[in-house]
Amino acid sequence: MDIDTILEKQEKYMWGTWNYYQKPISIARGEGLYVWDTDGKKYLDMFGGMLTLSTGHCHPRVVEAIKEQVDKLIFAPSLYAHENAAVYAEMLAEITPPNLSKTYFALSGTEAVENTIKVAKAYTGAQEVIALRGAYHGLTALGMTLTAHPGFRWWGTNVAGVKHAVQPNCYRCAFHLTYPECDIACARDIEEIILKTTSGRIAAFIAEPIAGVSGLITPPPEYFEVAVAIARKYGGLFIADEVQTMFGRTGKYWSGSQHWGVEPDIMAVGKSTASGMPLSATITTPEIADKLSGSIVSTFQAHPVSVAAAIATLEVLKEENTPAHVAEIGAQIHEGFETLMDKYPLIGNVRGMGCMQGLEFVKDRETKEPAKEEMSALFEATRQRGLLIGSGGTGNAFRFTPPLVTQKEHVAEALVVLDHAIAEVQEMAM
Ligand SMILES: Cc1ncc(COP(=O)(O)O)c(C=O)c1O
Fold first, then answer.
1. Of 304, 314, 325, which Cα lies nearest the Cα of 62?
2. Which one of 280, 302, 388, 395 is least enclosed by Cβ atoms within 10 Å?
3. What is the CA radius of gyration of the chain?
4. In which region does residue 133 sit, left (phi positive, over 0), alpha (psi from -120 to 50) or beta (all else)?
């Protein structure tokens, strides 16, 4: 079917669709780091299916595991114990911080986050939760309430008891302070919020180790130690939303929070888990987990086919020594981005870690006025040149979040395309 017919049907029969480009791309096939659209145009996928295709598109080991499972058993409800789920939960416990050993499976990151809050409330007996401005945590009523990002709160639904502290964003500090003289005022703000706007006892503090949807906002090194200590002082558990940052995405470690020297009490993971098959997990300590045991049931929980894909995915990621590999690829990306920043005044900020880095466009480096039209132009320019990237922040940043198996030659190829595309946009902006 040609793209115009697909778009016509989409427009007529679907709602809630979205897209970055003047005319949407329709992807028909994927292999490794590349995808092809319905017209046969090839793209290098440096958005990695929104950070989901950890092993790339249609990795042969993942495809084989899915086929094998489909031939044997497509589905059995979690009412019945299933080998895949038990085996994979053990595999997860081997790569999460040592205290986190018990998993509850679901399908989406949103559900995984919802379950972190449920279990935190059950364990602490408290109801209030501190989240961060700029965070993205999902699309249900609670997910949207925890989220504090323009464009994702339009529904107006609010679950009681959620308060938002300022985001640790040194490039655009909410307090107009400069690191390190600021003394991490953003983290200390949490105490003020707890004391002045809650009952004084909280269930949890939830945060992303690197805030993905907000454009890869990376906190200063001490932020989490200070923030988590304050949350714990008032009875709160620390929930790391690792939906984007798990599985070595940030390099060096399997989970993003390990960079910040804090051990979460509960973690939500999703996206990269099963190379594109739907699967997410809420992982916590046995003590916390046992507070909710048996009281949450979901039909497709621990779906045997998704879990088969997840096992194959993690086997591949372990064999590839992913945390170390991503650290290496991340250094190459960072260096490439710094070189682009030296060349193009449009680039105001380079940030992120590992296979999770991005750039922010500004009209002027002094005023930091967001360059949104220029960023839209970059999406067209990269699309034309066969490169997929992701949007981030409030329209003037992009996310470069390739599959975790990306090789140096892919990054080099992408950097050349970005160089040409940014040169075109910079020229336009002059
Ligand atoms: C940090 C974070 N948490 C939760 C979610 C929600 O995950 P899902 O879209 O799978 O429901 C996302 C999705 O982008 C996310 O980035």
1. 314
2. 395
3. 21
4. beta
112 and 238 in one domain? yes
114, 136, 152, 306, best to mutate for ligand 1 pocket (most atoms within 8 Å of CB): 136
Is the CB–ligand 1 distance for residue 115 below 6 Å?
Answer: no
The reply to whether omega before 180 is within 30° of 0 (cis) is: yes
Q: Which domain holds residue 375?
A: 3-59+322-429
Which tens digit of pLDDT belongs to each residue from 357-390?
999 999 999 999 999 999 999 999 999 999 999 9
Distance between CA atoms of residues 370 and 316, nearest Å: 40
Pick from 46, 37, 36: which is nearest to 403 by CA? 46
Rounded distance between C-alpha atoms, residue 275 and residue 271, angstroms? 8
Asked if residue 341 and residue 241 are part of one domain, the reply reads no
* Ligand 1 neighbourhood includes 244 CB (under 6 angstroms): yes
Question: Is the shortest distance between the CB of 245 and ligand 1 below 6 Å?
Answer: no
Q: What does the DSSP 8-state code read for residue 167?
A: P
What's the pLDDT tens digit per position in 71-116?
999 999 989 999 999 999 999 999 999 999 999 999 999 999 999 9
